[in-house]
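Dig into my protein:

:::
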Amino acid sequence: MKNLLLIAVLSIGLFAFAQPSKKRPNILFIAVDDLRPEMNFYGANHIQSPNLDKLAGESLVFNRAYCNVPVCGASRASLLTGSRPTRYRFLDARTEKDIDAPDAVSLPLLLKQNGYTTISNGKIYHSGKDDMAAWDSKWFPKGSVRDYQLPEHVKQSMEAGYGVPTEMADVGDDAYFDGKIAEKGIEDLQKLKNGNQPFFLALGFMKPHLPFNAPKKYWDLYDRSKIELPKSYMQPKSTPKEAFHKFGELRKYHNVPKNGDLPEDLAKELIHGYYACVSYVDAQIGLVLDELKRLELEDDTIVILWGDHGWNLGDHKLWCKHVTFETALRTPLIIKVPGKTSGQHTEAITEYIDIYPSLAELVGLNIPATVEGQSFVPVINGQSQQKDWAVSKFGDAVTLIKGDLFYTEWVKDDGIAYARMLFDHKTDPLELDNLAEKPAYKNTVKELAAELRAKWGKDFLKKK
């Protein structure tokens, strides 16, 4: 009897040992360049984005997510390493993780080291050669990144480097880069379907980045005569001059004046083009999500979608990013976790450096010591989050977002401020009334200045 019992116990043990451990969840990681949080699921009703709306209905939507630096290369390197920008690190579009944070184990590298197949398609890092060790494969469409389809625009771009800021071409979705990126993502999902490893599939869509090129059918979704300039189309005298710029990124394009405000018809053309590009990229993302479902991978895959920073569409008479107004800092962020999310929204203030530790926790991996963000998994689990702040910076400007207050200082190398602005979003959501120099807010400014320095990171003023 004892021998039979021993055999049974051993058999159960051997059976248990023989069972494969449960595979970690896959991650579909979708980055969208220059995407504002202006879709229907954020309360707007003028941009048609049915696929993103559907995804949001299955996800947790962050109403108050903020990039840590409003420029693509720096934002992406910061997000993918979970590291804060400093006065000397993660500065501009050309930032490379390998140069600014060579010792940091990036999110894709951590996943690769722990058995994930890692694939980068399209624009994930700004530089195609950055963090090569993190990927099993990297792919980017061939051709000029301006991606014009009409011959006259192609010729103009080849001759001048930049062409017109918008293009409406009567072509199929796969003519432009984002259609090709969606096709590549679908091909990869089909290959990964039967793999024995979990996957981290990163898709970096290019639109709505300038130039605003999209197939004609997406332009036709909108009536330009009904497009209006933003309510914040002004630059109040109380706002420091340092807060504004000449939006040089846009002025490189043909037919854009080199100085001054844009003509109203051009401004509305740009807004129209932006909307068209959002609808176009929405359709491409929808194709990928449909294939994920068709392949029966939905229940095993975390889907996260983010825009690398906000974008100004005439807000404060500005275009592009490169400022610390909320329009450049606030970003779309949604995450679908099977069995846990179903269209909830959260007001929890979230920084982009929080994405890395959150995904690592969700798939059961230890978080490297270099990661400075804080996991938002408790929010996914329906718990409250005590953290109610974020810090973003661009150039000399550093912003503390604390509750409804947005406090910015422009600082020198020694950390001493030479300009300030403070907005209370409870009474001034458009950021038109700078409170920083008003006597009634002297103590508030003093408290926020101290808190900004306590939270901008221990290495903020440290030179490389």
The chain has one domain: 23-383. The two ends are 72 Å apart (CA to CA). DSSP finds 14 helices and 19 strands in the chain.
